[in-house]
Amino acid sequence: PAIFVITPTYARLVQKAELTRLSQTFLHVPQLHWIVVEDSPHKTPLVTDLLVKSGLTYTHLHMPTTKDHKLQEGDPSWLKPRGVEQRNEGLRWLREDRRAQPGGDNQQGVVYFADDDNTYSLQIFEEMRSTQRVSVWPVGLVGGMKYERPVVEGGKVVRFHTGWRPTRPFPIDMAGFAVSLKLVLANPDACFDREAPIGFLESSFLKGLVTMDELEPKADNCSKVLVWHTRTEKPKMKQEEAMRSQGLGSDPAVEV
Ligand code: UGA
Ligand code: MN
């Protein structure tokens, strides 16, 4: 089955670097359809051009986060959930597009939400390819821990190894699960709730789709870390600003 990867992305200094790294990982994955959703009122030339040159099968969408839900300069990053409207727009497109294909709602495929800054091993895509309903696996470097993971006993997920609010319905990072396309199509209202309290975004989507005992553990019964919640440092522009004030700033025509 094909893997539909939904990636929210927004303009910032490291965006092209992140998307370059991600696209070059995806080039190694057979049958991957990349759904890139820009957090922007329009499609930007930077992302448009990168996708055209990527060599990937892709769909380019955009959906701005409404102002009252967008992080403002100086807000701590955890204050508001990020990428919500974009993932929902990706789901909307997928449902509409797949319905129009032969086979309608009965289609093979897997849906995965891949943030633009994480690090993905190629093996995680082969693990998720056999997803029947919802598959799960560990995520490295997340939640203030070396890893978080579902705990598997007798082939079933019985609880979660997480340091924070283990009582959440699904204490799993966005990078730690995939959903079958059939389940997404069979539940047309399942989406991410932008009003979800901190840490409950993943649960807001999953709770309408599965129960804990239906989760399908991957990555050797959730014993292997194959995806990492890496975060890229914001580059400092101190010299850039000093140079600019002397009239020697970098050429704005050079895309970074
Ligand atoms: C953690 C989770 O790993 C995310 O999946 C979850 O969306 C987020 O928390 C949350 O609580 O909302 P974190 O690394 O803190 O992730 O978030 P980011 O990587 O900064 O953002 C997640 C995605 O949304 C990225 O693909 C990013 O490009 C996108 N994003 C971020 C936007 O589209 N717009 C923004 O204003 C910010
Ligand atoms: Mn991130």
From TrEMBL:
Record site: Interaction with galactose moiety of substrate glycoprotein: E148, Q239
Mention any one GO cellular component term assigned to this protein in its UniProt record.
Golgi membrane
Q: In which pathway does it act?
A: Protein modification; protein glycosylation
Q: Residues annotated as region Disordered?
A: 235-256
Specify where it is mainly localized. membrane
Residues given in the record as Mn(2+) binding sites: D117
Active-site residues? Answer: E202
In the record, what terms sit under GO molecular function? galactosylgalactosylxylosylprotein 3-beta-glucuronosyltransferase activity; metal ion binding
Keywords associated with the record: Glycoprotein, Golgi apparatus, Manganese, Membrane, Metal-binding, Signal-anchor, Transferase, Transmembrane, Transmembrane helix
Compartment annotation: Endomembrane system; Golgi apparatus membrane
* Gene Ontology biological process: carbohydrate metabolic process; cartilage development; chondroitin sulfate proteoglycan biosynthetic process; extracellular matrix organization; heparan sulfate proteoglycan biosynthetic process
Q: Key word Lyase present in the record? A: no
Q: Which cofactor does it need?
A: Mn(2+)
User: How does the record classify its membrane topology?
Assistant: Single-pass type II membrane protein
- Where UDP-alpha-D-glucuronate binds, per the record, is at P8, T9, Y10, D39, R82, R87, D115, D116, D117, H229, T230, R231
Catalytic activity field: 3-O-(beta-D-galactosyl-(1->3)-beta-D-galactosyl-(1->4)-beta-D-xylosyl)-L-seryl-[protein] + UDP-alpha-D-glucuronate = 3-O-(beta-D-GlcA-(1->3)-beta-D-Gal-(1->3)-beta-D-Gal-(1->4)-beta-D-Xyl)-L-seryl-[protein] + UDP + H(+)
Enzyme Commission number(s) of this protein:
2.4.1.135
Family assignment from sequence similarity: Belongs to the glycosyltransferase 43 family.
Protein known as: Galactosylgalactosylxylosylprotein 3-beta-glucuronosyltransferase
Report the source organism: Sparus aurata
Q: What is the lineage of its organism?
A: Eukaryota, Metazoa, Chordata, Craniata, Vertebrata
Gene name of this polypeptide = B3GAT3
What stretch of the whole protein does this chain cover?
Answer: 96 to 351 of 351
